[in-house]
Amino acid sequence: MEFPVLDIDNNVVAIIGVSQVDKSSVGSNASSKFDPYEILTQLNIPFFTTDSAGKVLKTTPLINQYLPNIEKLTSNVITEIVQEEYLTESLKEFYENTNSKNVTLKISKSAELIGLKKVTKDNNVLFYINDSSKSNFKTAGISKMYDAIMKISPQPMFIYDIENLKFMEVNDAAIKLYGYSKEEFLNMDLTDLYAPEDIQTLLESANKKSKTNEFTGPWRHMKKDGSAIIVELSKSPMDYKGKSAHINIIRDITDEVKNSKKIKMFRAAFENSSDLIFITDNDGFITYASDSVINNLGYSKHDLDKKPFLSLLKDEKRAELNKDLIHSDSKETKKIKTELKKATGQMLEVNLVASPIFDYNGEKDSITIIAKPKIKPAQASSEKDISKEVKKGVEPSFLSNVFHELLTPINVILGFIQEINDSIDKPTEDQKEAIDIIKENQKLLLQSMDTAAEYSALEDNKIKFKPEEIFFVDLVRRDSNYNRKNSPIE
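Now predict its structure.
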């Protein structure tokens, strides 16, 4: 037997199911039948039953509060007991329509008459009263159900009063997460889980409408020992022990947030590294190549996509790497000196560091390969070239290399500063001032880097000048009434 559980908005949030062993199916008592009426009586739910024609068969004394003379009229049909014409017509349609399995009729301001077909083996029709003004099925029954759910739930849960935010119930998982005892929890309110500077955040979130059963956040909560945790909350309205309340499911995402921040930091270093970084699948086909690979080897992203990494190696090194890394179950990192083939056919001497990555089953999922180019000593220049470079004061290729080496740590530093800035939800005045100073100096640093890059390009003769003939008057802002044809300059 199943009963729908409704929230204060009259939405079905759960179903209570009650089962009973059918003794007739095992031959112990052929006349024994499932009797839901005993259950309804224990729950203090007013009810009565009729046969398929509407004749009243069984009633409970509680039903007299809503249908006073029903016990005396058990030989009559329900349509004769309910005098209101609209109720009579609705009930007739309910009985005559074979596809209709339930009906809900308003019989007073707070009470509804709910009829259900085929809930017993004899196919009798069951009617019960749902009265929102009394603590019956909708209050006591639901409260017991939520108590049972909270007890067995592995997720932290608590219920608090909407009016004063006082905790009304809390489960063992929440006690373990926050460190308070149940008695301490029930003497607290929701604001006790927030730091003083986060109370405003709590008030703002309370005013925002969120969809039921959806997680919102992240929010920062404080444990009993003073440490902070980051959580997401799923909030649902309910009527608990006669009061309007919210039941919250808590999801601790502290480790997820920390790991996400680490990933962002590593990604900043990863994407701005001057080393050549490859990621391949477990068979050695390239799935990712960093910008440094494109810049140093001259391939496009499309050229490298799904390209065998072994095709970039010298012939004599392919068999070694294929055996020791790609087709090896070893979890050790391999270090190899080799050369990578550029798009032009030239070879770039590198030191390879290859690490296999394994999934949750312990099977090799991918391979991360970092190639660090070896810097060759500069070749001796002629006296004429030396004097030319001394006169210029700086070697163009050297300046370009220095700028490129500086660019990577600067980008990493700026990325870390941005991560620190984003992690502060409500900075103090001193923190705001420090952040503004960092941003201003960041702009100056980026301007200096742009200037160095332009100068480096100029020294390397990468900037092309294109002479053009222009009129001086085109550079001067003229009055709107000025006639260019009368200009003496032209």
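Residues 429-459 form the longest helix (31 residues).
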